[in-house]
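As the next step, I wrote out a protein sequence along with its fold in token form, included below for the reader:
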Amino acid sequence: MTHTIRLAQQPEADELLGRSPLAALVGMLLDQQVPMEWAFAGPLTIAQRLGGDDLDARRIAEWPPEEFAALLSQKPAVHRYPGAMAGRVQQLCRYLVEHYDGDAAAVWRDAADGPELLRRLNALPGFGKQKAQIFLALLGKQYDVRPDRWREAAGPYGERDAFRSAADITGPETLEKVRAHKQQLKAQAKKDKQASKDKQAQQGSDS
């Protein structure tokens, strides 16, 4: 089943994300320390460099690691840290081969409810709790994967009109809203860190 996705902001890359469960997982894996649209364009770049128009978990898992890292490192690089991310992509694919016979969609296809799906996603290599919750929200909001209690399991990312993560991006306008939210969080974190330093300095001067 094909879904209309606008995460990469590139028609061909988004088309792949809309029809390939593995591409969606790999895009989510790559979504760290780079702009979201760069991360989600990565699966198409990888597929093209492997000589196809889709990703195959078994093929990626078996690819010689040094050669796979070199593919992701070609300019333009798939990620800011292409070598490290190449290793993570292969780890993810090996896990899918071992536990789901290479079928990425099987991770969520028969999940009984949201909490179970969250546990499955959290067990994937490279998926911590936050990334698992964001991807769960993405599945529910844009891929019609909605087991019972999926919003609750996704935490704040499952909220309607939250504009917190990739799960809420449906075009350029929502991308900017999500980006603004992330910048606001960074600014608040910086402010809180400075306040903590000032408090410690004050306590030191009072002692």
